[in-house]
Amino acid sequence: MVSILTKKIGAFSLLLAAGLPAKAASYVSSSLPAPVSRSNPDPMETLYDQDATPIYVRATLAKDAPGIVRGLAKQSADDRDRAHCHRFLESVASRFAAASPQNAFRILSMDRESAQTHFRVLQLEDGIPLFDGDGRVVLKDKGGEALDAQYLGRFRQSANHSSSLPRLTADEAKEVAWKDLSQVSDVAPVDTEVSGPPSELQVHPILVWYTPEVSGSAGDSKPVKRLAWHLAVRPNFLELWEFVVDAQDGSILLKFPDHCSAGPATSTARDLKGTDRTFGTYKHTDNKYYLIDAAEPMFNASRSKFPDQAVGAIVTMDMGNSKPTSPVYRHLTNTDNVWKDPKAVSAHANAFLAYDYYLKVHGRNSINGQGGNIRSYINVVEANGAAMDNAYWSGNAMFYGNGRTIMTPLVGSLDVAGHEMTHGVTGATAALRYSGQSGAINESMSDVFGAMIDRDDWTIGEDVVKTSYFPTGALRSLSDPTQGLAKTKSGWQPAHMNQYANLPLTAQGDNGGVHVNSGIPNHAFYRFAMEVGKEKAEQVYFRALTRYLTASSKFVDLRLAVTTAAKDLYGDAEVKAAENAFAAVGVGAAGPVVPKVSALQ
Question: For position 10, what pLDDT does the model report?
Fold first, then answer.
């Protein structure tokens, strides 16, 4: 899980965390006609953030209005939905005076769900993506001839910007990032077993428009957009970093870690808490048993080659306290299927429980939703060889330290495993950026689902913290984020926006307080769950995470996503409960609603 501490290392940890969106095919339409208004239009509703940025637009569309979209009946259902999506987006762009409404958005992906179709979209300007221009479009069939169209995301209106011709090349941007990383991290070769094939070790830089954001809860300034290179680099076994480098002068506009720093057989063995756990193992042709669970629904036998290339398996391995700069890891094996290492038992069994929760409660097929492997590594140390007081999600694996000053071995906590795995789910869905309020939501989602996976209390890390450092006996609390502590004590978090910590968007500032300010959305979830029950609350939040949140979402966007999901799944009582929960922590409704522009015919 992302770490609660601000550390030099870059990864999603119990004490810090994050993820890159998956690659998606683009769909661009340049031939759709402009929207036409009608005499008695339905209103287009718009909600704004405090800085006057539009974050939600809703309108009613006619399915096949004469003179606007012809011949839709002859197209496939997917093509019709894409056409409607583009019509709606062009109307949104026109509403906010985009320079080229017909080319203001690119569809990245679409997903049909009963009477709804969900799109991920990307805002463009002069054909160049906006760094924080990702959004969601939902088309809901209202029956008859009407569609309900909703846009959720931060629409950046056209503004002055720097030249669209870069002075810095992509390779020069890489050099800037690597030089900077060499000052804060240990650069060493990366093994492809954990990091993926070589082509995925470094995301090729792409040109984006970047709008600098004011540190803190909300910015009122309107800075000029700057052309920049957006790239990700993996300097070593554990870390993944994202950079935004100015394409004119080579300055680093933003950087943050993108990793979180917390033949089938079965066996029963004792874990770190002294509890007997039953888990899956695998007997290979070498007559050894491996700590590989290949008995779950996601397992793909036809594509698997044991033991190193299992597909759809839960795998636990041992790093043996080797340094991340020169990692030496091995499969955990024996010849009798008797497991005597309680840390290995805890890691393997907890990974299964987190996987099983997402599968049975939310119908999600592993972390990536497509049956991808779930890997855990135990006996992980710091770059200098010192014992690690943390756990991490690295981008595609979980790493567990054995504790030192403030923690005992972190594999002993189920909610830590749930927290770290959720960072992976977040990275594969909303891809919440690990900075500022979006990063705090990222952390909060890991705490929320960590608490739902280990659902007997409202605390995180209570099984692994040392009370000499965390006097309440818990890392964090969703029911009482302050834990009755002074602001200077370990374990304190704000419970309300009037306690919001305005920290700089730097490593020293915890990337804008992602591990601090997550207490506010944490407490909103607690209040919501207490009113509607955990079962409803977890369904609403999962839908909000996977259907409505975007990389740049802030707290007000989370409120909107949760209330929208509550309306989708339940009714007015649950929507009101969500509104009350966020109001109680000082996150007000976005507004105002402005019904000024006609909807599309």
Answer: 42
